[in-house]
Amino acid sequence: MKMSVSLDGFVGDSHGQKDWVFKTGDEESLAWSVEKIKEAGLIIMGRKSFETMAPYWPTATGPFAAPMNNIPKALFTKKGFRGIDPAHTTTAEQSSSGTSWAKARVFDGDLAEGIRELKAQFGKPIVAIGGAGFMQNLIATGLIDEYHLAIHPVALGSGLSIFAGLEIPVYLKLAEVKVFPKGVIAQTYRI
Question: Domain count of the chain?
Answer without folding.
Answer: 1
